[in-house]
């Protein structure tokens, strides 16, 4: 049975004393379309390979939902998925692809071949196959993001490294008086923690005035974001101020929101912002990227999160007019030969992750529609799973569906005790250790006002991801875990959470 927690119950379904509605798995699938439906005598395809429960589950006696595999949804690709991701630890509901991504077995094999090739004859490798292979990877990325020229694309370890490259030249501009002390750097308060610290370390210390764009959450429309962004730009320009750099997320991390990138960059251009840097750490393989349409000066995205590369590799797009002032923060004998060359040699190290980008593209072509179809399906499924969880818990999504990518924010019932970032981490650890569910938890300081719909203000959200290896079982396990925590809290307080 699927157990649905709700404040008012569900029409036509029997509600028990805890306000938890009982419905069959078959009824649930009928309610949620064809996302996870399949055909057998019972209407479901049930996998019985559930022998690898975690030790914590066995100790607690937790009954996990049976894995439900959507044969008709994946078509003939199901065996491919099982083969390519068979190395994942069994018995774990892995719904946090957004943090570290995943890499299929065939790409791991490609990476191992590159690593062996280097170790077989390092001198020959470094003066031939290495640079040729990196160029092919850059060409692959350039085509995927519609860059005007391959030289606009450099490969770096991750988006954090890319941020250092961009912000280093900003710091130099302040030091060389190209920018003046008090000139503005604009960033979103959604900004990833490492990027926020990089802005402070490079630009703030060099004399920049940093303005954070306060954005709403929960958020229901692009207009809310655009209005607040425009107000912050006006603030930065007040009294003759100059905005030298705007740092904008494409898909923010926590909370996860797909931002109206083109509109925000359009405002920057109209208002004379000197440079625009887009932190698209979660973007490639997750949302569409067209650099000639986006129009940013700098753009970075991790290739290991949603594009199936092994860690760690990312790309940094840099408009060619900025090339003379862009340098990798690790200085080698390639310094001055252009950012792509500087990034392609940062000393002796393992470059194998950067070399297997073409292999990843070949992997995605095994699926009908390729990476575009994968990301569309992931978006549709994560919204459906988010809505299922919100209904079960009597809560809501943190954004409207169109502001979700392949990640969604789902509010947790307020009786799940989370009143700080530390308690969010504690809950995340508990879900991992006791329930074998891997999902990040976001704490949001409660607001005194109610939502416009008159509902409660929720304090904590689960950020769920969907990637092609996920099954309905993963989300049912999260649902059951939170319901069990709700039940425990309600018994402890002798009160029903609503």
Poorly predicted segments: 1-61, 63-72, 449-453
What's the CATH first level of the largest domain?
A: Alpha Beta
Give the count of helical stretches: 19
- From the N-terminal CA to the C-terminal CA, the straight-line distance is 22 Å
What's the mean pLDDT score? 85
What's the total count of β strands? Answer: 14
Q: Please list the strands of the largest sheet in the order they lie side by side.
A: 4-10-9-8-7-5-6
- Gyration radius, to the nearest Å? 24 Å
- Principal-axis shape equals globular
Strand content: 5-15%
CATH level-two architecture of the largest domain: 3-Layer(aba) Sandwich
CATH homology superfamily name of the largest domain = Type I PLP-dependent aspartate aminotransferase-like (Major domain)
Q: Please estimate the helix content.
A: 40-55%
Model description:
The chain is built from 19 helices and 14 strands. It is globular and about 70 Å long. It has 2 domains: 2-84 and 370-493, Aspartate Aminotransferase, domain 1 (Alpha-Beta Complex); 107-364, Aspartate Aminotransferase, domain 2, CATH 3.40.640. With 498 residues, it is an alpha/beta fold.
